[in-house]
Structures are given as C-alpha cells and as structure tokens.
What we know:
Layout: H1 3-27, H2 30-40, E1 46-50, H3 53-67, E2 72-74, H4 77-80, E3 93-97, H5 107-115, E4 120-124, H6 130-134, E5 137-140, H7 156-176, H8 180-186, H9 190-195, H10 199-202, E6 211-213, H11 218-228, E7 233-236, E8 242-246, H12 248-253, H13 263-266, E9 268-269, E10 273-274, H14 280-290, E11 294-298, E12 305-310, H15 311-316
Parallel strand pairs: 1-2, 1-3, 3-4, 4-5, 6-7, 10-11
Antiparallel strand pairs: 7-8, 8-9, 11-12
Amino acid sequence: MTRDTSLSIGRRVLHREAQALSMLADALDHSFADAVDLMLGASGRVIVSGMGKSGHVGRKIAATFASTGTPAHFVHPAEASHGDLGMLAKGDVCLVLSNSGETPELADIIAYTRRFSIPLIGVAGKPGSTLLRQSDVALVLPPAEEVCPMGLAPTTSTTMTLALGDALAVALMERRQFTPEHYRDFHPGGKLGARLSRVRDLMHPADEMPLVPTGTAMSEALLVISQKGFGVVGVAGSDGRLIGIVTDGDLRRHMDGLLSRTVDQVMTPDPLTIDPEALAERALAVMNERKVTCLFAVAPADGTPQGILHIHDCLRAGVA
Length: 320
C-alpha cells in the first residue's frame, strides 16, 4: 500500500463521515427540541450513560455539558448496576447512548429511570430498539454505514453521536444565554482561562498606581514615576477623575524647564484608558495598536482610576 493510498483512504473516511453528519442535521426534528426542553427544565443534573465506545463519547458529552452551564456527569452502566444507580435522583434527566439500542448493560439504568420517573432521553440508530421504545424522548441516528471496512468498529455512529451531543450542548448554552463570563467561571486555568481574564483580574490595585493630584510639581511627579516603576504617572482632578497622564514622551517634549513646571503643564489630557471589566485580551490589543505599555483602568460611571495594567501583566498571564 502506497502513501497516496493512505491519503485517499483518509479523505474517503472524512468525506463519508461528513455526509453522515449532513444526514443527521437533516434528520433532526421536534424530538431534538423536546430533549433540550427536558434538560432545561431539570432541577438536577443530566446523567449521561453508555457502554463501550458510546461510553467514551458519553464522557465527553457530559464534560461538554458541565463546562457550558448544564450540570452533568457520566455514570458507567456496569457500575450503575453495582450501586452507582444511587447517583440518579429525582430532578435529574438521563441521556443514554447506544447505537444498537439493545446494549444489555443498559437494562438496569433504563429500568431505574422508569421505576422512579426520571426522564429518559435515548440516542440510538434503530427506531424500534428497546432503548428508544422506553425513552421519553427518542433521538434517532440516521442509517449511515460505519466507515470501518468490515462495518463493525463504531466510527460513523460515534461521530454522529458526539456531534449530536455538541448540538445539544450549544442549544442549551444559547437557551440559557450562557456568556463568556459564565464560561470563564468553569475554565479559570490554561490558555483559555487567560484569554477570558478581565482587566480587573490582572491590574495593579489603587495603592500601586502612579497617581498624583492636579497641581503637583514635576519634581515630585518624577519621584512617583521612579518609585512605582510603570514609566508614567496619572493626574487626578479634584473630583478624583483621571484627567491626564505624563509619559516619557511628555517628559522629552518639555525637557527645557521641566522641574519648574507642574503636571498640568506637561501631561497629555484625556488619556487612553480601559474599563476594568474589559477582557485582558482586548486591553493587550489596544496597547499593541497604540504602542503603549500600560493603561489606567477607569470606572466608566465616574471616571475614577481603579488600577493600572502593564503589558507585561498580560504576557505573564498568558494573554496573547
């Protein structure tokens, strides 16, 4: 077998699975909306279960639900038969996956949902299967052949099931009006957490700000610039609002007689600022675009400075 043959096989597989996903999209009907409504109305969690490859897919679906605002966890059907059925409770909704719909290990968890009136959403490829007949909502996978050359290994079916789980999760997110703020609560770590950090999470607090009142002599302002280490000093008006900023550029432009001046005579008025609630990613973009190294974080309501953000604070946190 040549390398070109391998490439041809890979493309064939992906094209066939893509076709299966198109079939799945076309096959969605009111049952999908019913499933979303059931999960939205649950006072408890979404319990996902499946055996074998369906179980692996189920774990991912449960994780996606949980990270996007729908409390969920995975229960292994074999473990359920040995005590983990206690993880299911009134108020929960059960989502059970099985391509055949006849997986024997699912019998106990199906029976338990029927006995205790726990809503059951079944996902399977056979409309008349035991799982779908027992379900309150039946989601039927279209009859797309597995791309395995023997037609045995779960391939196309698991791809469709995984995509269906994503579709449910996104529908739930949008119905819940799930925001980036909510998402960050579940993803505080790693690159994703850094991207969703807000200015207030990274900025230096008020006691570290290089800030002087209007009328301050430049000799004193230079000491503040040196002590605080940001290379700038902000100027606050009598009402506490940030009215200007003195940068190294301002110092160079007013070098003659600098020490005889006040900050009001040297500063750049109405400086560039950022909302403390803005994404740190946005602040970094502004700093790069305007070629500045720091921004005062100013409260939109009254214009008072709340902190200061340096470009290095963003880079250290992984915002890029």
